[in-house]
């Protein structure tokens, strides 16, 4: 998994890609598993060009998210990647 | 087999799965079997606008029928377009123009796609119909 953005005081907003998996495929399957993420160019084409990609998946955490939800997200990503690879 | 019969066959195939995740798994499987477009066909003129992922669709006309090949960088999109290729490839322009594509509604594809992907699906259909109209006009 490649996570974009390495600032020290990052907010818990993670944009990422997984090698061999298209961002929109991953987002679609996560959606079906009850995980809401954003995907694609995110209205930011120049930044995508800067990172040499056609898009990313973005998981954004907020104070109301629980540890269980993060675990569910990880399990869902693993399951989706298995389906797509 | 007529377009209607192929559509019915697809509806029956999808009705086996009750969970949408299983239907996606099937779409992924279909995507892997799509007749791939030649590398030379992956040019901008064959790129469909309105898709979140890149989709190339090429059409060849021979013996009065249109033959489609396609590819996409996203596997689920490839699965979706493989359904369209299966329904439309090897048909006359008029058959394509007259097709109402009920199977998309019947398998629930449109409402199970995100708005951007549903928009992409409509763009694919529009492009296929556009090819049919263009080849039909050329014939006259």
Brief characterization of the structure:
Chain A has three helices and four strands. Chain A has helices at residues 23-32, 45-50, 67-84; strands spanning 2-4, 13-17, 38-40, 56-60.
Shape of chain B: globular
| Rounded average pLDDT of chain B | 88
Query: In percent, how much strand structure appears in the residues of chain A?
Result: 15-25%
Look up the CATH topology of chain A: Aspartate Aminotransferase, domain 1
What is the number of helices of chain A?
3
Uncertain spans of chain B: none
The separation of the N and C termini of chain A measures 14 Å
Q: Shape of chain A, please?
A: globular
Uncertain ranges of chain A: none
Oligomer: heterodimer
Features:
heterodimer; A: 85 residues; alpha+beta; Aspartate Aminotransferase, domain 1; 3 helices; globular; B: 140 residues; mainly alpha; Sufe protein. Chain: A; 6 helices; 2 strands; 54% helix
Account of the 3D structure:
The complex is a heterodimer of chains A (85) and B (140). By secondary structure, chain A is of the alpha+beta class. Chain A has one domain: Aspartate Aminotransferase, domain 1. Chain A contains 3 helices and 4 strands; from the N terminus they run E-E-H-E-H-E-H. Chain A has helices spanning 23-32, 45-50, 67-84; strands at residues 2-4, 13-17, 38-40, 56-60. A 4-stranded antiparallel β-sheet of chain A has the order 1-2-4-3, with helices on one face. In chain A, a hairpin with an 8-residue loop joins strand 1 and strand 2 (13-17). In chain A, helix 1 packs across helix 3. The longest helix of chain A has 18 residues, at 67-84. The two termini of chain A are 14 Å apart. With 140 residues, chain B is mainly alpha-helical. Chain B has one domain (3-139): Alpha-Beta Complex (Sufe protein. Chain: A), CATH 3.90.1010. Helices cover 54% and strands 11% of the residues of chain B. Chain B is built from 6 helices and 2 strands. In chain B, a hairpin with a 2-residue loop joins strand 1 and strand 2 (65-72). Chain B is globular and about 45 Å long. The interface between A and B is medium-sized, with 15 and 17 residues.
């Amino acid at each position: 998994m490649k996570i974009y953005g390495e600032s020290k005081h990052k907010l818990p907003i993670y944009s990422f890609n997984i090698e061999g998996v298209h961002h929109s495929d991953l987002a679609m399957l996560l959606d079906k598993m009850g995980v809401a993420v954003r995907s694609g160019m995110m209205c930011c084409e120049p930044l995508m060009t800067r990172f040499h990609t056609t898009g990313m998946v973005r998981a954004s955490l907020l104070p109301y998210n629980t540890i269980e939800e993060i675990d569910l997200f990880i399990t869902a990503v693993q399951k989706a990647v298995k389906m797509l690879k | 087999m007529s377009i209607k019969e192929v559509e019915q066959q697809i509806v029956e195939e999808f009705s086996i799965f009750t969970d949408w995740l299983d239907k996606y798994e099937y779409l992924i499987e279909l995507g892997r079997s799509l007749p791939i477009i030649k590398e030379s066909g992956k040019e901008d003129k064959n790129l469909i606008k309105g898709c979140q992922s890149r989709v190339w669709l090429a059409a060849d006309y021979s013996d009065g029928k249109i033959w489609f090949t396609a590819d996409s960088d996203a596997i689920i999109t490839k699965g979706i377009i493989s359904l369209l290729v299966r329904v439309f490839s090897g048909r006359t322009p008029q058959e394509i123009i007259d097709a109402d594509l009920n199977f998309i509604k019947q398998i629930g594809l449109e409402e199970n796609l995100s708005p951007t992907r549903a928009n992409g699906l409509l763009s694919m259909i529009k492009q296929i119909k556009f090819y049919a109209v263009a080849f039909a006009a050329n014939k006259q």
